[in-house]
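protien #1 (seq + structre)
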Amino acid sequence: MQAQEYAEHLASQNWRSFCNHLQGTLSTKKTWHILQALIDVAHNKTQRRHTIQRLIHSYAGTEEQLLQELETKLRDSDNLQATSNNFPTSREYQGAPNEELDWPFRQAELHAALAKLTHNTSPGKYRATNKHLRQLPHWR
């Protein structure tokens, strides 16, 4: 029994270490492939599309009701996970104000960030690619 607990502790510790290693790398292709493999059992777009179509066709209500139910379940699971991990459920910043972090970006900081970009990173939520960022006239 003690060996089982120790093995579970090591597995948990290794998982946390692996997740900590991924922090700050969400824009890389490798991290997204790992996350996709963990989240999705379907390995390609066609299989995912078929799974979604089966879900829609087998659902008794309308598509709007299905979306509402999924949104409710996802929101509830986020809240449950956040409270079970003792994280605040609010997404607003909870810490003390930091004037240095609230300053606008300096041109030198932006130059340094652009220099660190690699070509295998994926665009963020604003869909700005590395090519677009590097072609900004006032950042050359």
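ok now protien #2
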Amino acid sequence: MYFTILILFFATLNTRISGDANVSTLLLTNTNVHNPGLLMRLMPSGLAYLREIGMKVVNDEILRIQLPTITETIETGQVSIYDAYVSKYWSPPDYSLELSPPDMFTWSMAKMHIRAAGEFEALFTGPLLITAVPIRGQFETLFGHVSLTMAVRLVRTRAGAPMVQSTYCRADVGYVDLNVRNTGVITDFFINTFK
């Protein structure tokens, strides 16, 4: 008896799943056969879940970032930073992920604090200096009240594949606190005092 009921259940289930009537015809139009389409509806609770997952990823990954070597030319020489990394990160208390119909997401984070450290090398020249003066040492900087806003659109390529397109990105830094060390006693004093 139970065996017959199980066979009937699986036979009915198999016909429901394998039937072509269960596939929307919209999925068969305007797409490439090698890249099927997907129709999705986002609810506020789903967007909130996506926002929380996104913040968890940011919080977990930001301390793993290795910053690239940066070289800047200034009026009196050149400054380079290298071997830089994020040493501490305070998660933003204000963050949001909003859907802007029909196809855009806006991610905002505010009041973040980031501490970075690394090595620097500077070469100063000037009218009062006979030769170029090199300075090397370590730095530690705190970026406070950092705000970041970025917007992306979900679009299709010519082949019909989904693509994420960046439409807007802005970062604001409230303040920067810089400390240097191991450049020499006098140099450390002057740089840290008159920054």
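Residues 43-193 form a domain with the Bactericidal permeability-increasing protein; domain 1 fold (CATH 3.15.10.10).
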